[in-house]
Amino acid sequence: MLKILLFGKNGQLGAELLRSLAVFGEVIAPERGQSGGDLANAADIRGAVLRVMPDIVVNAAAFTDVDAAEGQPDIARAINADAPALLARSCGETGAWFVHYSSDYVFDGSGGTRPWTEDDPARPLNAYGLSKLLGDQSVMQNCARHLIFRTSWLYAAHGENFAKKILRRLRKDGQLTVVNDQFGVPTAANWLADLTVVALARVLADERLAGLYHAAAAGETSWHGYACFVVEQAQKTGLLAGVPINAVRPVASTAYEQTARRPMNSRLDTSKLRRTFGLNPPDWQVGVANVVEELA
């Protein structure tokens, strides 16, 4: 039985990992405020690794408020870059595997409609994306036994996410505007957590499979298309009875005020993931429909 140290257990992904990782053995997941639970405290997190001496460290904690990161870049960097770097070094010293999660926001959104591959140059547009990119680089430099999964538009039935914001706003105001020129794919946290277990089982048997992988659902949509699908599914379950789909109005990014710039093209090429692990990501609509039904 293996020993797993999990950071970020209360987040959307962390909560799912707490379930999925149990197949390997004992999962130790410190709470924020407990010893080892503060990723902004370098001595605290290093001490947790050395105290637990896990076989696997999984980091699902992150500073994810993209707009807030513009005004707090030091905090975003401390949590998204410095902490993973320290965890990676600690894993390198102890021989543990390190699993880390990254973002489509490491890319600048150019390239038209072509999905980004793992080998494409990363040029983030905002402080959040830069902090995630620095984290990726630090993990790769400091721990050979690593798995990094770059994902996009993560959601779950618990925690805060785009779909829940849409439902809340429509219940309150009856209508809203959503950008229709930024493209990517919503990805379910439970699928990513289950994928992590499959990938870990493979790399534990063959260390040559370590590395960086793009992990996202199949297909693509805009934020506006995503919102309309959420409304359509919510109508079926009775969550938004009487709210028409046209209550979600499309708007260009240039007309929508946000502190941080967003990439227009967040499509991720998952060919390497599918080829290496023999997995076919589900269509994004499947997971979103399941979450809306669960919320209902």
TrEMBL record:
UniProt keyword terms in alphabetical order: NADP, Oxidoreductase
Pathway: Carbohydrate biosynthesis; dTDP-L-rhamnose biosynthesis
Keyword flag Cell membrane: no
RmlD-like substrate binding domain: residues covered: 3-295
Cofactor: Mg(2+)
Single annotated GO MF: dTDP-4-dehydrorhamnose reductase activity
Recorded superkingdom: Bacteria
Reactions this protein catalyses: dTDP-beta-L-rhamnose + NADP(+) = dTDP-4-dehydro-beta-L-rhamnose + NADPH + H(+)
Bound cofactor: record note: Binds 1 Mg(2+) ion per monomer.
E.C. number(s) listed in UniProt: 1.1.1.133
Function: Catalyzes the reduction of dTDP-6-deoxy-L-lyxo-4-hexulose to yield dTDP-L-rhamnose.
Family affiliation: Belongs to the dTDP-4-dehydrorhamnose reductase family.
Record-linked NCBIfam families: PRK09987.1 (NF007440), rmlD (TIGR01214)
Protein name: dTDP-4-dehydrorhamnose reductase
The organism of origin for this protein: Polaromonas aquatica
Gene expressing this chain: rfbD
